[in-house]
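Hi support team,

I've been running sequence recovery on a batch of backbones for a student project. Most finish fine, but this one hangs at about 90% for roughly twenty minutes before it completes. I'm not sure whether the input is malformed or the queue is just slow. I've pasted the structure tokens below so you can try to reproduce it. Let me know if you need the job ID as well.

Thanks,
M.K.
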């Protein structure tokens, strides 16, 4: 168990680097659909980055298992604690599903998953146009779900930083929770003596 009340440097580095890469990948994905002229370049970028994100997500899961995150504050309502845990499960599921769906989709479409000009990943599935179509649809919908989860995650982080001020945001942002603060007292309440 993490006894220090914060995420270690490796967990923070994985979190923030994956956050940047996932956001970049979402915009690259939108660009692939929106721009025919940039599509070939964006596809060549999208495939290896997707596989890198799959590897980072697996490393992150292993690290989380070996070095669990700090516990949530005891003052957090039970429903919010449940939502936090459920959203993290959903985020990890989406981070793993997106690249695997992409790899499977390309395999079913008969497209090589090129990492470099000389190296391609082996196909996950046999070529099947109907399966390709289904996986392409699933890849898109999981992308939308991942984007929605990221927005919820960011909103929750800002809620912890600006409203609750309970050290949860600081545990990932700076690596230490510092002193836990609470919201300012109600101005109508007389000071304690």
């Amino acid at each position: 168990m993490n006894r220090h009340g914060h995420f270690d440097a490796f967990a923070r580095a994985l979190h923030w680097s994956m956050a940047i890469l996932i956001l970049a990948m979402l915009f690259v994905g939108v660009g692939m659909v929106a721009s025919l002229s940039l599509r070939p370049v964006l596809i060549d970028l999208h495939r290896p980055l997707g596989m890198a994100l799959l590897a980072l997500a697996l490393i992150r899961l292993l690290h989380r298992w070996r070095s669990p995150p700090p516990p949530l504050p005891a003052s957090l309502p039970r429903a919010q604690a449940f939502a936090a845990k459920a959203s993290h499960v959903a985020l990890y599921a989406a981070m793993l599903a997106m690249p695997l769906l992409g790899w499977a989709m390309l395999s079913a479409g008969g497209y090589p998953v090129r990492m470099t000009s000389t190296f391609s990943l082996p196909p996950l599935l046999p070529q099947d146009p109907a399966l390709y179509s289904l996986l392409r649809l699933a890849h898109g919908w999981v992308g939308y779900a991942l984007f929605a989860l990221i927005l919820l995650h960011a909103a929750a982080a800002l809620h912890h930083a600006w409203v609750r001020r309970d050290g949860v945001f600081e545990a990932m942002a700076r690596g230490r929770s510092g002193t836990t603060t609470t919201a300012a007292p109600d101005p109508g309440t007389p000071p304690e003596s």
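--
Follow-up from support: It reproduced on our side and the slowdown came from queue contention, not your input. Strands lie at 113-114, 120-121. No action needed from you.
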